[in-house]
Each structure stands twice: as C-alpha cells, then as structure tokens.
Amino acid sequence: MAEVLDNDTLARDKPSTEKDISDELDLKIQKYLRGEGGNLEVLTDKKLKGQLSVREELYSKSAKVAAKADKWLVPSEGGYLEAEGIEKTWRIKQEAIAKEVDILSSRNQYDIVLPELGPYALQFTSSGRYMALGGRKGHLGIVDLMNMNLIKEFQVRETVRDVTFLHNELFFAAAQKKYTYIYDRHGTELHCLKEHGPVLRLQFLKNHFLLASINKFGQLHYQDVTTGAMVGNFRTGLGRTDVMQVNPFNGVVALGHSGGTVTMWKPTSSAPLVKMLCHHGPVSALAFHSNGHLMATAGKDKKIKLWDLRKYEVFQTLHGHANTLDFSQKGLLAYGTGSSIQVLGDLSGSQNYSRYMTHSMVKGYQISKLMFRPYEDVLGIGHSMGWSSILIPGSGEPNFDTWVANPFETSKQRREKEVRSLLDKLPPETIMLDPSKIGTVKPAQKEKKPKKEREADIDAAVEAAKDIKMKKKTKGRSKPSKKVKKMKEAIEKVKRPFLEEKMKEEAISRKKRKISEEVSLPKSLKRFAGKKLAI
Amino acid sequence: MKVKVISRSADEFTRERSNDLQRVFRNYDPSIRSQEKAVEYVRALNAAKLDKIFARPFIGAMDGHIDAISCMAKNPNHLKGIFSGSMDGDIRLWDISSRRTVCQFPGHQGAVRGLAVSTDGQILVSCGTDCSVRLWNVPVAAPMELGGSTENSAEPISVYVWKNAFWGVDHEWGGERFATVGAQVDIWNHNRSQPIQSFEWGSDSVISVRFNPGEPDLLATSASDRSITLYDLRQSSPVRKMIMMTKTNSLSWNPREPLNFTAANEDGNCYSYDARKLDEAKCVHKDHVSAVMDIDYSPTGREFVTGSYDRTVRIFQYNGGHSREIYHTKRMQRVFCVKFSCDASYVISGSDDTNLRLWKANASEQLGVVLPRERKKHDYHEALKNRYKYLPEVKRIVRHRHLPKPIFKATSLMRAMADARKRKDERRKAHSAPGSIKTKPLRTRRIIKEVE
C-alpha cells in the first residue's frame, strides 16, 4: 500500500518526461505481478521449464496490461490534503475543508444528534453506499448515503450492542440483549440466532458467508448464513471481550483480551492460530490493514502499537488511548478516544505512521465507533449523542470495480451479484494465515545438519553473543562480577534453542528405540521392556 | 492548502437512458480482492463439477443394418457422410446430422470387411469375404431433401473378383491406388481389373492395412501371425516386419506426425511406434480390459479413439498412458470399428448390435452456436481446471468416470494380476544373482523380434 501512496504523489507532481512515466509503470507492474516469479533456471525438466516460462511470460504480460489500464484508463484520482507554507495538515479544520471542496462532498460532513438512544454502532456495506446503525437503546436503522435517504428505522426496545450487514444491504444482523437477530431491509425479523448467546461483537466474512460473533462468556461462534449451519463454536477461555476484528486479507478473526493478548482464530480449529501478548493491560481496540500485513492494537496501557504480521513484531509504538481503531482502504489509521479523533498516515512511505489529521467532537460526546467509508474520503463516527461524518481526504480508494463493489448498483446487478458470490462462496477451510498457500506445494522437510556443522553453529552464535558490547550502567550495575554474570547469561540464552532442538530429537529417537525394542523382545519379556535392566 | 476529495456525481457513473447498457468500471488492484487464490480454487472446483454435470457424450444411434457393423469409412470430402459395411454384405451411406441412411450399396454376397474412400471423395472401394472388390460412385450430397424414407441404392462401377477373401482395404492419399489385404497384400488401381503389385511375407493372412498420410508409397499392415509389416511400394519386397506377442487388430497413422503409428493390440493395450524404430514402443496406452478392435486418429493428431471387445469406446491422448474418456451404454455390444469425424468433434462407433453410435469427442462440450461471452467463460473454466488440476479434490472429480460393473471388476482383476506378477518378478530378482534377471519395460516386453 505504501507504493500506492507513492504513486499518487508522483501523479500529482505531473510526470512530464517519459522516464517518470515508465518508472511509475514499473511500480504498478510490481503490484500487479503479485510477487516474484519462480526461479526456472534450477529446473532440470526441460518440458516443465518450457511450460512454466510460457506461463511466467503470460503473467508479466497481463501485469503490464493491468498496469497500463491503471495508469491511463481509471476514471478518477484519489483525494489529497497538502499543507502550504507553515500550515500543518493536522491543524486544518473540517470547516476549512468544507469551504474548499465541492457541494456534493461537503454534504458528507454532518452530525446527527440523537441524545437519547446512543451510543451508536455503525457499519457500511462493502460498496460504501449503505450504513447500518444500532443505538445502544434499541434504535436500528439503515441509511442510503448516496442520496441521504433513511431507508428504515425502528425501535427494538432492548439493548443493541452491535450491527453488521450481511452480504448485501438487504439483510443485517443486530446483537441484542439476549440473542442476535437478522432483519431484512424493511425491518422484518427473519431469524433469531439463539445459539450465539448474548453477543457483544458481530463480524461478517463476506467471502465465506460466515457470521462470526463473540459473546459475553467469551465464546466464539461461526454460523454459515446460507445454510444456517453452525460451523464453529469455540470457548476462548480468556474471558469476556468486545474487541473483535476480521482480517480482510485472509478471513482470520482476531480477538483482543483483557489480559493483553490478541488471539487469531479460524473456524476449523478449536485452538487459536496465533496468541500474542500485545499489551500490558486489556486490549481496547484492534484494526487490520487491507493488505493483511499490518495490525494496529490499542491497550488500556496507553499505547497504540503497529504490528508487522509477517514477523509478528512491533514496528511502531504510539502513546495514547483508543476506544476504536480503523484502517482506511488507502492505509490511513484513525483512532478515537473520548471526543477526539486522530488520523495517522504513512506519509513518507517508510512504515512510519505520523499525524495526518485531527478532529474534535463537541465536548462530552463519547466516541464509540469509527469506520472509514469504502470508496469515499469519509470517516463515519458513532458516538454517544448520535452519529457524525467528517471528510478525510486521501482515505478512500478512488476507483471501484463494478464486479467487486459497486456504489451505483442497480437492483438487477445486485441480484446477479448475489448469485455469483454464492457460487464463489469459499468453504471455511480456506481461512488460513497465509491464503496464498492454496495450490502450492508443501515444502520439503528440513534435512538434519551433521553434528560438526551444528557445533560450528553453536560456536558462531556464542562468539556473536560475546561480541555484544555491554551498556555502561550506573550505581554499581557495571561491576566486573555483574558483567561476567551477564555475559554468561547471554551465552546461555543463545545456546538454549540449539540444546532444546537436540533434546527434542533425542526424545523422538528414544521413543522410536523403545518401540523397536518392544517389537524385538519375545512376548513373555515384553512387560519388562522400557525398564532399565539391572545387571 | 491544497485539498481534493473523491466526489462522484451519479450522472457520470450511471447510464443516461434506460435502454443503454450499464456502465462498467474496472480496477484491477489486487488489494480490493481478498483471497484471490481461494476464490480461484473454488471456481475451478465448480468448473470441474459443471463439467461432470454437462457430460452427455451420447448423441444418438444410427439404426438400419441387420447384422453387426464390421467396417466404416469416413468421406474425406464431405463432413456429414459416413459409410458403414456390415457382416451381411450391406453397405450404407449415412448422413450424420440427420442420422439417417442416404444411400445403400447392395451387391456383396458375404461380409463386407473393408471400406475406403478416395481422397477426392468420388470413389468408394469395398471388399469382403466373397473375394470381390467393388468400386462405387459416391452420390453427390443432395438427396436429403427427398426425405429419409426413399433410400436410393447405387450400382457398382466395377466388380473385380480375385483369388482369396479380403480382410481390409485402404486408399492411397491423393492418388488412384488402393491396397487390399487378405492372404497377401495387393495394390490395385481404379482402372485395372487386376492388382498392379502383390506382396507376400509369411503364409498367415493379413488383417488390416493403412497408407501413410505423409508418404504415399508407404503402408503398414498387421497380420494374424502377430506381426506388423511396413511396405514401400517403390520396392518389390516389404521393408520391415516386427512380431509381437499378440495380434494387432488394427493400426492408424498419426496424421500430424506421419512417422508415428499406433497399433491396437489383442492384449487390450495400444502401442505407439515410431516407424523408423520398431524395437521399442514410444508409448503404451493401457486401459481396455479386452482386445482393442479398431483405432482411429483425430485429424488434429493429438488424440485417438479406440473401440474394444469389452463394449467400450475410449479416447486417448497421443502421448497419454491412460485414456482421457470412456464411452459406454447398456445396449452397445462389442465394438468392431470406430472413426473420428473429420472435424475432430465427433466420434462414431459401429458395434455388434447393428447400430452406429454418434458421440461427442469432448463429453461436456456445448453443441451449437456458442456466443463470444460463452466461449470466453468456457475458456476461463478450462484455464482454471488446468491450473488446479493437481489439487486432490479437483483431480478426483475430473478423473472420476462411472464404469459398467463388468469393466470395473475386470479392471481391478487385471490390476491385481499385474501387481502379483510384478511382485513375483521382484522376488525372483531379489533371490537370484544380481544382474542375472533383467526386467524389460512394458514398451519392449511385448515385442518378440524385428525382422528386416
């Protein structure tokens, strides 16, 4: 996504020379190639080599065509906000933006004040055209944001904790006091999902048609909304939580727990795929970047951390509370706490998120939910006094694809799309941490290194540990005896993984030997197998 | 401050009038499509399933003969016509599109054993066990307007009676010569009442003959002494002979690689040979459980069809060890002759139950006019299936064929026998002096010797 932002800045600087254009095209081709091609030189099978090289050529050709189409044929350019002189982008107020933009866009700035029924949860459809609203006190509604038309609102007279659209705007699910209900566009109750229990958060996996929920008892449920089958029902065992987010890249559900851990789940395994300690204190919010490599977590320990999900490492830590987090399609990160909203952006393109925009609501408004509207430069805000919407230039993807998500969809197209998406419905097994694994070959098992090499490895690691310089510390912590002790500890730490590996191997071989011993013994002696023989 | 936000007016993105087409906008960015590979896999799976749903290869049977079909010939000059000869001496010309007899050629006293059409499509040559060769004028393709009820019959141009019964005939590519086989190989000319050349090698009768499509003077025959012989008409004696363990019932040259031919063998396998190198088969095509009776190459040269005594028709890739397709019906009996149509899209089989059957060469292909969008969709599905063909689920669905119970049982029995034989050989090898037992590959195992 970083390079996408890059491209946009390039485009604005008016690439005049041919070289600039070709550089830009190269960047785009990289994006459309979806990774490097395989190394065909190592292949010995000539026939296979020929076939694969033909295929590689095809891939590169289609990437080139897509890049060219992207460069020249897309109808609209992305939004941006640039400061001039001593201005700072984060000091620019919504009123100032409203003066500069066209009337159509300035209509996207509004506050709807409904003080009795808040705080509000909100959710957009994937095309960004419709919004579902759920007021805590039982107010449910659907709004058509294109012509600002309230399609339906009704009062369920019990607590509503979350709402989510199903595969299109015709159906939405609401997590209410006791059960979860599915309503249609006219507010008719279609289903009551009793099995989910008192649900705190709902998420819909639109590729899989799965409705995921986490309830008060920390149980995670997956229900297939096409067949009604309960696909998965897992106890997290980590207590009550209302922090839940689906990774749009691979469909894995992440939960943030009060112990500071984040766990990731798939519907086909009862144990979490990943369990990572993110914060010293409860996790308060979670968000995923759409490219799947980036996760943002916020904790009650007054920290917001950005994680690289390829390495499971923090690459940036920010200070601040956040009740809610959200990534936009172009990679801006919004977080809200109390009545203020911060929007961060990766402006330099080097994975360094810095302040991009800020916004303060009227004092006393408590923000409960932030969500960027897809394909628009708009941030939706659900808060204790209703809901609002502000402009965040450069947050949305400017070009939609009619076959993916179409804001101007007619009812006929919607019907067509429903059928198509049902045909392409993915089975729950396709949810995995790395979705590009499908259709690839399992890598060959690692060969055991010979003993000598292994010892050399240990020696090298020990030498490397010895070379590390100790920091000079005060108050007697740098005494020679302490230094020696520390060095010893460091060496032990380096050696440990090697020793553990060795122990594991030994355990396996011991087990094997035991089995073979048992087999070789005559039947009458078998009961003595495994016991040490006393001679 | 410079600021721009996305703003879309509905006029630009929707159609102007209700009879316009809806506007389509594309964005090929991979980041707005998640889990592309999984989606592709599911589509490939669906494509494979759809293929199975639409696999209806049988188009129809052509009924009319009153005895088993013994031979067929396709008209190289006319796509819809096919000739068939039966055991009672009846020869018929069929119109494939209406599946009716166009014309009958009466005259043979015994079984018709061979039919061939000249390359220009004018002359039909037939021969049979009544020791006669008959030449017929092929009627011009028009009489369908008269209706199927009036089957007109033709008179032979000439009848040549010879010394022995005939087993097969084939016409030269682009010339006037044709070859008949029986007790010997005779080369005839349209205008001569006696063969212009005769070949003999051994005393057993020759049962099939095929001219090489690339080299008009070259022909291959198979004989009941289990041999395959190559002849060059420019020489006075046969060129080369190869003897196998079992008889070759029929053979066919690959029209695109005319130096290769495939032999349909009595042991249920087909063997592809390079005519220059007869000591080893290029490929062994296994799958039939009984003698393969006839074989014919597709004009594309990429696949061939075989008919077998086990009552099935199979289609093989020219280089594939196992069949791509198996066709069978409850009523189809022993298949004696098969032909690929001249446009490579149909297969015709003639069997013991007096019927000709018409099959699609590609079981799930859509017949009739295919619109460009449909064509694109089919191509996409093909590409998907090809890409994910190695994944177990897709592979299972694509490979699955329903087999008649006798075939299924015979297959498993034959597999068990082959496994047992293999096991025994391995044990024998393990218990004898190293190097004293050599296992020959199947490509050479069935060949006894090659004679120059």
From TrEMBL, chain A:
<feature type="repeat" description="WD">
    <location>
        <begin position="276"/>
        <end position="317"/>
    </location>
</feature>
<keyword id="KW-0539">Nucleus</keyword>
<dbReference type="InterPro" id="IPR040315">
    <property type="entry name" value="WDR46/Utp7"/>
</dbReference>
<dbReference type="Pfam" id="PF08149">
    <property type="entry name" value="BING4CT"/>
</dbReference>
<dbReference type="Pfam" id="PF00400">
    <property type="entry name" value="WD40"/>
</dbReference>
<feature type="compositionally biased region" description="Basic residues">
    <location>
        <begin position="469"/>
        <end position="486"/>
    </location>
</feature>
<feature type="domain" description="BING4 C-terminal">
    <location>
        <begin position="355"/>
        <end position="435"/>
    </location>
</feature>
<keyword id="KW-0677">Repeat</keyword>
<dbReference type="GO" id="GO:0030686">
    <property type="term" value="C:90S preribosome"/>
</dbReference>
<dbReference type="GO" id="GO:0032040">
    <property type="term" value="C:small-subunit processome"/>
</dbReference>
<keyword id="KW-0853">WD repeat</keyword>
<dbReference type="InterPro" id="IPR019775">
    <property type="entry name" value="WD40_repeat_CS"/>
</dbReference>
<feature type="region of interest" description="Disordered">
    <location>
        <begin position="467"/>
        <end position="489"/>
    </location>
</feature>
<dbReference type="InterPro" id="IPR015943">
    <property type="entry name" value="WD40/YVTN_repeat-like_dom_sf"/>
</dbReference>
<dbReference type="InterPro" id="IPR036322">
    <property type="entry name" value="WD40_repeat_dom_sf"/>
</dbReference>
<dbReference type="InterPro" id="IPR012952">
    <property type="entry name" value="BING4_C_dom"/>
</dbReference>
<dbReference type="InterPro" id="IPR001680">
    <property type="entry name" value="WD40_rpt"/>
</dbReference>
<protein>
    <recommendedName>
        <fullName>BING4 C-terminal domain-containing protein</fullName>
    </recommendedName>
</protein>
<dbReference type="GO" id="GO:0000462">
    <property type="term" value="P:maturation of SSU-rRNA from tricistronic rRNA transcript (SSU-rRNA, 5.8S rRNA, LSU-rRNA)"/>
</dbReference>
TrEMBL record, chain B:
<dbReference type="GO" id="GO:0000462">
    <property type="term" value="P:maturation of SSU-rRNA from tricistronic rRNA transcript (SSU-rRNA, 5.8S rRNA, LSU-rRNA)"/>
</dbReference>
<dbReference type="InterPro" id="IPR001680">
    <property type="entry name" value="WD40_rpt"/>
</dbReference>
<keyword id="KW-0853">WD repeat</keyword>
<feature type="repeat" description="WD">
    <location>
        <begin position="285"/>
        <end position="326"/>
    </location>
</feature>
<feature type="domain" description="Sof1-like protein">
    <location>
        <begin position="361"/>
        <end position="447"/>
    </location>
</feature>
<dbReference type="InterPro" id="IPR019775">
    <property type="entry name" value="WD40_repeat_CS"/>
</dbReference>
<dbReference type="InterPro" id="IPR051733">
    <property type="entry name" value="WD_repeat_DCAF13/WDSOF1"/>
</dbReference>
<dbReference type="InterPro" id="IPR007287">
    <property type="entry name" value="Sof1"/>
</dbReference>
<dbReference type="InterPro" id="IPR036322">
    <property type="entry name" value="WD40_repeat_dom_sf"/>
</dbReference>
<feature type="repeat" description="WD">
    <location>
        <begin position="328"/>
        <end position="369"/>
    </location>
</feature>
<dbReference type="Pfam" id="PF00400">
    <property type="entry name" value="WD40"/>
</dbReference>
<dbReference type="GO" id="GO:0032040">
    <property type="term" value="C:small-subunit processome"/>
</dbReference>
<protein>
    <recommendedName>
        <fullName>DDB1- and CUL4-associated factor 13</fullName>
    </recommendedName>
</protein>
<keyword id="KW-0687">Ribonucleoprotein</keyword>
<keyword id="KW-0539">Nucleus</keyword>
<feature type="repeat" description="WD">
    <location>
        <begin position="105"/>
        <end position="138"/>
    </location>
</feature>
<dbReference type="Pfam" id="PF04158">
    <property type="entry name" value="Sof1"/>
</dbReference>
<keyword id="KW-0677">Repeat</keyword>
<comment type="similarity">
    <text>Belongs to the WD repeat DCAF13/WDSOF1 family.</text>
</comment>
<feature type="repeat" description="WD">
    <location>
        <begin position="62"/>
        <end position="104"/>
    </location>
</feature>
<feature type="region of interest" description="Disordered">
    <location>
        <begin position="420"/>
        <end position="452"/>
    </location>
</feature>
<dbReference type="InterPro" id="IPR015943">
    <property type="entry name" value="WD40/YVTN_repeat-like_dom_sf"/>
</dbReference>
